[in-house]
Sequence to fold (552 residues):
Amino acid sequence: MALFFLALFVNVPLKKFANHLAFSSSELIVIWVMLIVTLGIPSMGFLQFLLPTLVAISYFATPENDWSETLHHHIPEWLVISDRNAVRNFYEGVNQSGFIPWSIWLKPLCIWTLFALVFYFTTLCLSILLRKQWIEHERFSFPLVQIPLEIAAASPKGQLFNTFFKNRFLWLGMSLPILLHLVNGLHAHFPNIPEIPRIYHIHRMFHGKPWHTLGWWPAVRIVIYFSVIGIAAMLTLEVSFSLWFFFLFFKLQYIIMNAIGLEINPWISCSRQVMGGYLIFVPAIFWIGRGHFFDVIRKTFSRGNQRLLIDDTNEPLPYRKALLGFLIGFTTIVIFCWIAGISVWVSLIVMLAIFITSIVLSWMVVNGGLLLVQAPFFPSEYITIVAGSSVIDSKSLALLGFQRGFFRDWGEFMMPNFLHNFRVLQGNKFSQKKILSILFLSITVAVIVSAYTSLDLIYGKGALNLQRWVYVNAPRNYFQQMSNMIQFPTHTRWNEVYSMIGGASFTFFLLWVRHHFIWWSLHPIGYLLGATYPPFHLWFSVFVGWLIKYCV
Fold:
């Protein structure tokens, strides 16, 4: 939307009255590139979950939960905020704008910022290694970048508007949601004006066993998002069909599991199926691109003519630097975790799980065109499910509580943003190599500005008066989960392991059938996303978009 308003309400007047100051198409693209890598930093992509995590471990410690014994002595002081006044004021507020105890916050913020920058750099290197395979070889469609490209397109000579803004169907399509939100906005201020409902809780129509499971998380409800309907109409029919089909497929599993009395919670079983599916899907991605990836490895570690096998002159970084950069960045993150107190083997598995998840979710976004993605598990759960929490030492478990800040809500993670940038810059006047400095400058500035504005808001209002899930429930619940694992170690959870095996097997089946039968319309992307948060909100809107495209 920022690019839309910039192109329409800023650039058009500039073209009219000061044409020499108007942004060119390339400049608008670069602005969009900078925006998408920074928008997630103050929110779910970084600081929204990290800041309360640094404080909650002290604020919510009570004699009843015994965190002082199970968690506190395992956490290095340089990682968190432990000053009582700073902690209390963070949650309860000081009613004074600009009052931030910087002397207390500066050290942990700098440490976590360095960690984040290394993680972003490592993610960038991995994105570069995938770029040619996904953009040039497999020719992914990148549905989500089509609209920004059209918005930023140059207008015909002597005209103010480009083809995008002249499209009558665009304005006709926009008028419906504008009218709906206008009426509902007026209703919020003037209750006499009737509201146009967008949410229908259809699960409330079903009562009794096993149908009541339709109301279990994630409940079956209808939510109408016109933007999602529009995006769904741009997706391939098999992707849009699979997105809503597999959400209902998993809800059918809820009904069957409850009816036959299985011991495992249906939500747990379905989320573990997704975990198993990831372990099959990533090897499939690398198998499909094995020629490209072997060429990258040979170019990196071979000498002489072997290094000429693959051309990387148009890459943001040469493949040698990108692969070595990924390995060095990965190693640096593991060393950071080891210095903090996490066992090396735990760090290795968790970080490997993080990048596996990043690859799968990025594939969903750039190839499937998904607006919102999420993984229904924490990376460390691959260990605690398969081997049990008893194999992880107490210090590592306590520190794994910080996963929430980076690796649970994947709605705004960085990797698909990097890949989208590489796609929109392809064929653009701006060099892929030159854009890297712009990206990291944007990210660094965004972290600094976001940290200041976020803390200013929180200390002024008090975190208890802000979004409760983000500042209270999420950090408290996860640290309590880690504390429980320390006090009551678990062993292999076989029911969940069986679900993982089932999910891995079904994902392999979907991939095999898609490869051998061109008529097969069920896409694994729907299965790997079906038991997560996004379909809970989006499945019906995706269904409407699919139905419109199918009928047309």
Observations:
- The chain has a mean pLDDT of 92.
- Strands lie at 199-200, 222-223.
